[in-house]
Amino acid sequence: MRSSWGCSAVAGLLGALSACLAKLALGADYLRDICESAAGGAGGICDWVHLLLRVSCICLVFACNGMMWTFFAKGLRLSSSSATATVTTTASNFVTSAFLGKVLFGESRALLWWVGISITLCGLLLLHKESPPLEGTRESKKEN
Question: Which N-terminal residues, if any, form the signal peptide (predicted)?
Answer without folding.
Answer: 1-27
